[in-house]
Amino acid sequence: MSVAKELVHLRTFKQTALLLISHEPHLTKVVMDPDLTLENQTITLEDPRLKNATAKNSTKPSLFGTTFLHRFVNRTMDYTLYSLPLISMAFVACGLAISMLSADLLRRLDFQDQVLELVDTHVRPLIKLLTGEEANGLQMMGVRFKVQSMMNETIPPAKATIFAVGMTKLFVLEIGPLLTALLLCGRIGGSYAGKVGTLHATSQSKLLLTLGISPLMWTLWPSLLAALIAAPLLTVTGTAISIFLAGLVGPGYYGIGSTQQFRKDMTDALLPVLRLESLAYLWEKDEEGNYLLSLPQLLDSITTIAKVKDIDFSVTYPPRYNGWTEMMIEAITYPPAYHLSKAVVYVFIILGVAEAVANW
After folding, report:
1. Residue 306: which pLDDT band, with cuts at 50, 70 and 90?
2. In this structure, what are the phi and psi dihedrals at residue 65, rounded to the nearest 5 degrees?
3. Under a CB-based contact definition with an 8 Å cutoff, are residues 155 and 110 in contact?
4. How far apart are CA 22 and CA 43, in angstroms?
5. 105-112: which pairs have CB atoms within 8 A and are 24 or more residues apart?
6. What span, in angstroms and rounded, lies between the C-alpha atoms of 163 and 266?
């Protein structure tokens, strides 16, 4: 009330014009008293819902985002669904470019002339050594025809296997996690650093501390958990897109093998034998190259192994280190595990750097 009276004094004796914004009407009436001051204009702002008889049934302001779970769900949706088109388009372009380049190189690769020259150089003296006579043209023609037919039988399947295994290993072990991480650097890292930087610039982080809330719990941990879910999912999705396109481009457009052979070689490269004593038998094949265990039998065997307490995790090859070290190396370098572990490591680095930069 004393402040209101002082404002009246300023207006009356100092002739000071005021722009008063107040939410206390009784003090406003004192300052804007028409008996003491002149040229008063009052504008009253009212909530239109208060005039409505059903105002108590109106929608309350949303409190979404105030809990850890809400922030985690929001960031998971942001990092996963909103990043999916970017990841998909990038891997479509990358998968098509690399598969077309690789298939074109393999199709152009032709070393039959070099092999036939070696046959002329080394087989002709060998025939003379064995028969004691110079090889005539008919003999050399037969040898060349036989060698050429053998190359026609073996080189195309070899090219198809190289293409399928190379594309699978390339995207699963290297390009898939790396390309996803590069895209998420801007998508997740930049977004997170901007949010944290804004909190510091506007002193919202100090407000959180005043309210007894850790800024890390408000920003870092929900984002980190969401990124740990989003990064592997996006990496697997992008890698699957690229390998699928490679399976269409190689056999379909460039004639590198068949689709069935590509799938078989891709499966063998993606899921090789896990060289652990208790698990190696799961990959046994028959003479035709088919797995002995069907999918239900495989799942049943894995369940049985999981129930056994004394599982032998020793490797099936001569170890160079102690048993547990070799077992960990074999498990971590297994293609699917290596694929996911690289995605997780990359996203840890991305958010760690973003947090450090935002707080710098």
Report:
1. low
2. 105, -5
3. no
4. 11
5. 106/159, 106/162, 106/163, 106/254, 106/256, 107/159, 107/254, 107/255, 107/256, 109/159, 112/148, 112/151
6. 9
